Amino acid sequence: MQSVTISKLKNELSHFLRLVKKGQKILITDRNLPIAEILPLSPQNLFQEEWLIQLEAEGAVRRPVMTKQKHWSPPKPVPVSGVLEALLEERTTGR
Fold it and tell me: Domain holding 32: CATH number?
């Protein structure tokens, strides 16, 4: 397992992600204290329900909440009155 600091990981993220794709684990440290680990995903577990349940329990993901969506409808027209009505009338009559 390779160890890397946060700043080095930020600067060379593509390099470390290539290593992870090849199956290597990366340990991320902050002031020489381990804080996280990047692991390669196994393809058979990628979309399995148990894997999602585990990630949700760990707080790593939140599932979307499906709600009934109302269809969009345009706003109701506002009645023209007062000064605006007079202005529009003036424009149409060409005074």
Answer: 3.40.1620.10
- How many helices (H) and strands (E) in the chain? 4, 3
Per-residue pLDDT tens for 19-41?
998 989 999 999 999 999 998 87
Instruction: Tell me the mean pLDDT in the region 53-82.
Output: 76
| In-domain check, residue 54 | no
- Is residue 82 domain-resident? no
In the numeric block, which tokens belong to residue 47? 């979309």
Give me the sheet containing 33-38, strands edge to edge.
Answer: 2-5, 26-30, 33-38
Number of structural domains (the chain) is 1
